[in-house]
Amino acid sequence: MVNKIHGVYLVTDRPLCFHHNLAEVVRLSALGGVKLVQLREKETDSREFLELAKQLKKILIPFQIPLLINDRIDICLAAGADGVHLGQSDLPWMEARRLLGSSAIIGLSLETKEDYHSLIQTEQKPNLDYIAVSPVFDTDTKTNTKTAWGLEGLHWLRTQTKIPIVAIGGIKESNAKSVIEAGADSLAVVSAICSAEDPKLATEKLSIKFHY
Length: 212
Prior knowledge:
It is a single chain. By secondary structure, the protein is α/β, with parallel strands linked by helices. The chain is built from 9 helices and 8 strands. An 8-stranded parallel β-barrel has the order 1-2-3-4-5-6-7-8, surrounded by 7 helices. Helix 1 runs parallel beside helix 2, helix 1 crosses helix 9 and helix 2 crosses helix 3. The two termini are 26 Å apart.
C-alpha cells in the first residue's frame, strides 16, 4: 500500500472557524500545503453534511488533496469523497473497506493500547491507510476520549507497527516537532488551523516542521 499519509491533516470544526467560513479555511489551508482534509460534522443533518462535502471536494480537487469524511460512509459515497475516518464505535473498518473499495483511504482511531492489540488480533496486517493516536495530548475539541497517549505512548505505537500514524489532540506549532520525532507521519489539527486568523500561514508553519 502506498503511504499517502504524510504532513499536515486538517480536521474541520465549523464552530471553531472564528475568522473565516469553513470553505475559506479549507481553501487557505490548501494554499498553505495541507495534505489531507477530514470533514467532521457531529451536529448537522445529512443533507447539509452532504452539501458541505460536495463543496469541499470541489475546492480540493484542483490541489489534488484527498477529502475524508468522519464516520459517514454514506456521505463519502454520495459526495465522491476519497475515504473515511472511523472511530472505535463506528462501522467496522473491514465493512468500510468492502463498501468503499481498495482505493479508498480508510483511517481508524485508537484510543488505547488495547485498541491496537484488538486490531492486530483481528487481522495481523490490517488493510488500513493509517491509524490515529487519539488524543496525543488532552484537548478541548475532543472531550469524550480516554487518557491521552502522550509522546511516550505515540513512540510505543511507532515501535509496534509500520502502518502510517496520524497524531491528533492538542497539537500546535510549539509541540509539532516533538510529535513528529516521536513517530507521527502526519499531524491532524483542528483549532490550530480552523481558529487561526491566517489559516494559510498556520498550515505553512506546521508543514515546515516536517522538513527539519
